[in-house]
């Protein structure tokens, strides 16, 4: 392959694959055992060396990035598939008494039942759940089974990035480990054995039929499989995040393998998420603030995972996904997966090359304007917005400026596009954020990053979306305009207040500032204070809004 | 069923639906919109200031033809003057036909044309000679690597000869999308860090380069050429099937079928990539031989030529670059004696840390410009 830095020492083998290990060949590690699997491009390992290699990789990834502190509660996101089952098994074995250098965190398992989104019948779902429970009982960690329908009862606080305590430095990690070890010796071995098997913290019962129907309606209204997969991923992330926050987990481990991450990276590129590749495919993902998503399986290829599961009988449960049995060209995810796997068969270094490139990505905006406040975040994926103004000479500008009137070529500085978002610096306060007030869909769209906007195009109506998304969108649009990044103007605030119906948002108390912004005539029991009137205003001499807005 | 009305003038029948927005437009409105968008790109990106002397890289293909045509239309408004610069790589059976098309265009549009040939600039190394020299190495010939780098150098040289201040090329959005896919698959972090903008501002003596058609998709370029009845040369380079870009191109076609906006989404991703500072290429200096922009002691064009002259074409590609530090016989540049292709031997394998290829040029650009 025309790879950068490729070594052209010898001509590459044109057609036939490398010779299989014959009887005389021994394991490359111990030189004694009979090899059972070929890793990378020709390294044959025997069973024991393979196990050591595999386990060592898992531990090394966790140890290298010293993010998981001892005693921390970690939620393992288990989908039933081979990679996450393997991860679960590694954690199980790592925590057991007899392993050298035990892992030191407190695990829990979450399983998200997505049968409704995939169109499974209730009988099939029940059968899958029975198998899942069986495996979870074998594993013995505290487990949580959540159905995807529960997104309809999530609070809008899920979409808010909570501040978290600053990550510990090197010294802090070492100090934490030392203190944990001291505690460990003090309390004695028995108490620190495997976490006591608690009562299963699964959910009370099956979701209601109306919720299932609402979910099916949502997924059936999405036009393309690509958008369906992205939506499913988003909802699943929010659900797991909610479970983690509710039960006090500060880390979530997902079982994405090297191959899957390479495919995910290329797919994210094609979906317009180039700005967020480091978060989507890196080892740790801190965009949610208090809960950090960690990917410990990111150096294991799918082949290694499959062989390990087979050789060491790791239990897994097959659950169909949204794209099961879909043709190859049905979605961008499928296309990329097929392309990468095909290229990998031809050039065995494809996946590792993409993975190496992904390691060079950093979590920073390209322009280097990371200093100061990062700016508003996307409503759905919670990454910092990466959109430009509507007329810039970029791909985003090209797609939005296509709305320009076509009758004559516009003059050099394109003025007043017909569909305008908030034009920062235009100096026309009364137009600031006014346009999208009339259109709830536009209000939601403007709070999304580029990738999520493109996905939303495949969703003709936003009504089937879970209410927490719409509520949060409304709340944010009332609070500030994502593009000009400032508070709503005075007049804009007045215009907002008139006649806009705000859905009752349960749960979180509004901040004092947003309370003062709300100009809606308050109803009792709403919990919103009336706007404070200044003394002069009360005396009738000044407009009411004088001192409320900065 | 009859075609709908044009969405903007509401008078004529629509001739196409724009790929990016699905709007139905008639020919005149579409061409006007296309030109307006190119103008907007140039103005908003501040690519060509008034008074610029612009060298248009003309290959005779659809992109450079459309580019030259649109710039010619917009030249009075932008206040620029145009020169056509064509590069003759010496690919028999392909480039001569393309050059004939360029000559016709120059005559029709009354634009000055300069033709720069590899044979003159690079010491009788035409692309056919390079291809013969790199053949038989087992893997792909990678003669497209040579072609891309040397053509950039030739274009720059031609632009200097006509006294240009800016160089424009006809890369469209599909090219940029293929480039970013390709660079990821090849692991070329250096090029990923450099790419994504609208062009390079031209540091250290190199002329500023830009790509006004960067945000126009290939379909629209083809349709524009069709509606305006432009005369261009449409065959593929004879070496194109071997380029790695073919994989990326197939993938892009499939992606576009799955989601029409995939091309612009990829361009957006490319604009927003953030790479670690260590992965970015070093700040450029000057080549010790020809004085052009270079990240290392020798610019890539000189390095490639050095490799060819020594009979080891892979010398400047990949890890074998270390071998260049050993100085060959002096006075090689411009030598007319071609080394025997049979003497080609693989480059010495020095286990260098993988360094990004090239200094200032795009590798694996389309088989023809």
UniProtKB/TrEMBL annotation, chain A:
<comment type="subunit">
    <text>Component of a complex at least composed of URM1, CTU2/NCS2 and CTU1/ATPBD3.</text>
</comment>
<dbReference type="GO" id="GO:0016783">
    <property type="term" value="F:sulfurtransferase activity"/>
</dbReference>
<feature type="compositionally biased region" description="Basic and acidic residues">
    <location>
        <begin position="1"/>
        <end position="10"/>
    </location>
</feature>
<dbReference type="InterPro" id="IPR014729">
    <property type="entry name" value="Rossmann-like_a/b/a_fold"/>
</dbReference>
<dbReference type="Pfam" id="PF10288">
    <property type="entry name" value="CTU2"/>
</dbReference>
<comment type="pathway">
    <text>tRNA modification; 5-methoxycarbonylmethyl-2-thiouridine-tRNA biosynthesis.</text>
</comment>
<dbReference type="GO" id="GO:0016779">
    <property type="term" value="F:nucleotidyltransferase activity"/>
</dbReference>
<protein>
    <recommendedName>
        <fullName>Cytoplasmic tRNA 2-thiolation protein 2</fullName>
    </recommendedName>
</protein>
<dbReference type="InterPro" id="IPR019407">
    <property type="entry name" value="CTU2"/>
</dbReference>
<dbReference type="GO" id="GO:0032991">
    <property type="term" value="C:protein-containing complex"/>
</dbReference>
<feature type="region of interest" description="Disordered">
    <location>
        <begin position="188"/>
        <end position="207"/>
    </location>
</feature>
<feature type="compositionally biased region" description="Basic residues">
    <location>
        <begin position="510"/>
        <end position="523"/>
    </location>
</feature>
<feature type="compositionally biased region" description="Low complexity">
    <location>
        <begin position="400"/>
        <end position="410"/>
    </location>
</feature>
<comment type="function">
    <text>Plays a central role in 2-thiolation of mcm(5)S(2)U at tRNA wobble positions of tRNA(Lys), tRNA(Glu) and tRNA(Gln). May act by forming a heterodimer with CTU1/ATPBD3 that ligates sulfur from thiocarboxylated URM1 onto the uridine of tRNAs at wobble position.</text>
</comment>
<keyword id="KW-0819">tRNA processing</keyword>
<keyword id="KW-0963">Cytoplasm</keyword>
<feature type="region of interest" description="Disordered">
    <location>
        <begin position="400"/>
        <end position="420"/>
    </location>
</feature>
<dbReference type="GO" id="GO:0032447">
    <property type="term" value="P:protein urmylation"/>
</dbReference>
<feature type="region of interest" description="Disordered">
    <location>
        <begin position="1"/>
        <end position="21"/>
    </location>
</feature>
<dbReference type="GO" id="GO:0002143">
    <property type="term" value="P:tRNA wobble position uridine thiolation"/>
</dbReference>
<dbReference type="GO" id="GO:0000049">
    <property type="term" value="F:tRNA binding"/>
</dbReference>
<comment type="similarity">
    <text>Belongs to the CTU2/NCS2 family.</text>
</comment>
UniProtKB/TrEMBL annotation, chain B:
<dbReference type="InterPro" id="IPR056369">
    <property type="entry name" value="CTU1-like_ATP-bd"/>
</dbReference>
<feature type="binding site">
    <location>
        <position position="87"/>
    </location>
    <ligand>
        <name>ATP</name>
    </ligand>
</feature>
<keyword id="KW-0808">Transferase</keyword>
<dbReference type="GO" id="GO:0032447">
    <property type="term" value="P:protein urmylation"/>
</dbReference>
<dbReference type="GO" id="GO:0002143">
    <property type="term" value="P:tRNA wobble position uridine thiolation"/>
</dbReference>
<keyword id="KW-0819">tRNA processing</keyword>
<dbReference type="InterPro" id="IPR000541">
    <property type="entry name" value="Ncs6/Tuc1/Ctu1"/>
</dbReference>
<comment type="similarity">
    <text>Belongs to the TtcA family. CTU1/NCS6/ATPBD3 subfamily.</text>
</comment>
<keyword id="KW-0067">ATP-binding</keyword>
<feature type="binding site">
    <location>
        <position position="170"/>
    </location>
    <ligand>
        <name>ATP</name>
    </ligand>
</feature>
<keyword id="KW-0820">tRNA-binding</keyword>
<comment type="subunit">
    <text>Component of a complex at least composed of URM1, CTU2/NCS2 and CTU1/ATPBD3. May form a heterodimer with CTU2/NCS2.</text>
</comment>
<dbReference type="GO" id="GO:0002144">
    <property type="term" value="C:cytosolic tRNA wobble base thiouridylase complex"/>
</dbReference>
<dbReference type="InterPro" id="IPR032442">
    <property type="entry name" value="CTU1_C"/>
</dbReference>
<feature type="compositionally biased region" description="Low complexity">
    <location>
        <begin position="344"/>
        <end position="358"/>
    </location>
</feature>
<keyword id="KW-0963">Cytoplasm</keyword>
<feature type="domain" description="Cytoplasmic tRNA 2-thiolation protein 1 C-terminal">
    <location>
        <begin position="285"/>
        <end position="315"/>
    </location>
</feature>
<dbReference type="GO" id="GO:0016779">
    <property type="term" value="F:nucleotidyltransferase activity"/>
</dbReference>
<dbReference type="InterPro" id="IPR035107">
    <property type="entry name" value="tRNA_thiolation_TtcA_Ctu1"/>
</dbReference>
<feature type="binding site">
    <location>
        <position position="63"/>
    </location>
    <ligand>
        <name>ATP</name>
    </ligand>
</feature>
<comment type="function">
    <text>Plays a central role in 2-thiolation of mcm(5)S(2)U at tRNA wobble positions of tRNA(Lys), tRNA(Glu) and tRNA(Gln). Directly binds tRNAs and probably acts by catalyzing adenylation of tRNAs, an intermediate required for 2-thiolation. It is unclear whether it acts as a sulfurtransferase that transfers sulfur from thiocarboxylated URM1 onto the uridine of tRNAs at wobble position.</text>
</comment>
<dbReference type="GO" id="GO:0005524">
    <property type="term" value="F:ATP binding"/>
</dbReference>
